[in-house]
Amino acid sequence: MSDDGATELLPPHVSADFYLWLWYTSEARGGRFTLEDGTLVEVYLDDRLALRDTGEERPTTLLTGDSPGTTPEARAAVLGGKVPKELRLLVRREDREYHVTLRGERVGLAGAKLATQVKSGEVLEVLMDRMFVYEELHWLVSCLLRQFAVERVSESWRADAVPAMRAWLSTLDAEASGG
Amino acid sequence: MGILKGPLSGRRYRIVGEVPDNFTDDYIHALNTNQHREPQSPAHKGESMGWCQVHNLLDVDFTDINRWLYNQYALIALRVDKKAVPARLLRAHLEKKMEAWCKENNRPKVPAAVKEELKEALEFDMLQKTLPRVQTWEVCWNMQDGWAFFTNDGELPNERFQKLFLRTFGLRAVPWSPLDELTGTEGLAETLVSAGATDLRGGGR
């Protein structure tokens, strides 16, 4: 952590790996994640997935609509060397459901639909409710990032995770071609 | 879209430094000092920037803390006004003025100095008739936990926010980094950063 005002972003390949891991793991685990405190949370790829060529800043493939992660285009893009730049997630914890786009090396939150209870009324009530759920969403994303980081630096990443992701992509490929 | 309603987008910051125990009077003064002010001349060209209330961008007085302080949250908005004359319209009017000048003075061409005078006078007139482009972005500052959320993701608005925040409160707003979340495990952030890219095309790491 720096206090000198510098912004330490995730290097592009790390944020791309994080998004790929979220996408893959949400499908491989049926959307279920157990967080560090034992909390169960469901995470699904929602209706938007943008990929970019390695070394490029702008997304070159944008997939929208239902389950964009299961499309042949998404698979072809990754197998062709593209990496995720942003993805929209559905995140559910207990009875609270969030829709949020994670974007770029900052892992920025965009278009976050918060699971608020108070829809109108006094400013104080609305603000407290919205900040409570915003904090929860920020915490959930941070937990997922930490979980990814631990897996990414472990030996099992190369030995297990990468082959599993390749197999997952091959499955999508076979399904897409009707095999 | 913003802090109080609609989908939320923007950037999170860590606020570095302590909020004084009895901050209200100081912060009221600081906010009022850095409130948004309309330019004195209606022909003012360029930008004006300052704080306003989230409830109405015309409300720029922060004396009543009940309008901006909600428990541990300070809720304010950054207002930026920009006034400029449409360049093509200015050019078109200037050509007409120059044609008229040539006719009046029976000259084939307008001297550079005269052209500049005509342009300045024209721009002055047009600016007086032009309304500024007004933009506001909200800031929610959790003074207890030391973070803030700014509802814009663009570089320039965020730079302005950081500058004005520092000038107003004497505290630095440092962009939140995802790596901040990894500091609990020694060496994790460094190892992650030095990890190579995962390549799924073949023989990847």
Summarize the structure.
The complex is a heterodimer of chains A (179) and B (205). Chain A is of the alpha+beta class and 179 residues long.
Written description of the protein model:
The complex is a heterodimer of chains A (179) and B (205). By secondary structure, chain A is α+β, with helices and mostly antiparallel strands. Chain A has one domain. Helices cover 42% and strands 26% of the residues of chain A. Chain A contains four helices and six strands, in the order αβββαβββαα. In chain A, helix 1 packs across helix 3 (123-152) and helix 2 crosses helix 4. Chain A is globular, with a radius of gyration of 17 Å. With 205 residues, chain B is of the alpha+beta class. Chain B folds into two domains: 11-84 and 133-184, no CATH class; 87-128. Chain B is 34% helix and 21% strand. Chain B contains five helices and seven strands, in the order E-H-E-E-E-H-H-E-E-H-E-H. Chain B has helices at residues 24-33, 87-105, 112-129, 155-169, 188-194; strands at 11-16, 46-52, 69-70, 73-83, 133-142, 147-150, 172-175. In chain B, strands 1, 2, 3, 4, 5, 6 and 7 form a seven-stranded antiparallel sheet that branches. In chain B, a hairpin with a 4-residue loop joins strand 5 and strand 6. In chain B, helix 2 crosses helix 3. The longest helix of chain B is centred in the middle third of the chain and has 19 residues, at 87-105. The two termini of chain B are 41 Å apart. Chains A and B meet through helix 1, strand 6, helix 3 and helix 4 of A and strand 1, strand 7 and helix 5 of B.
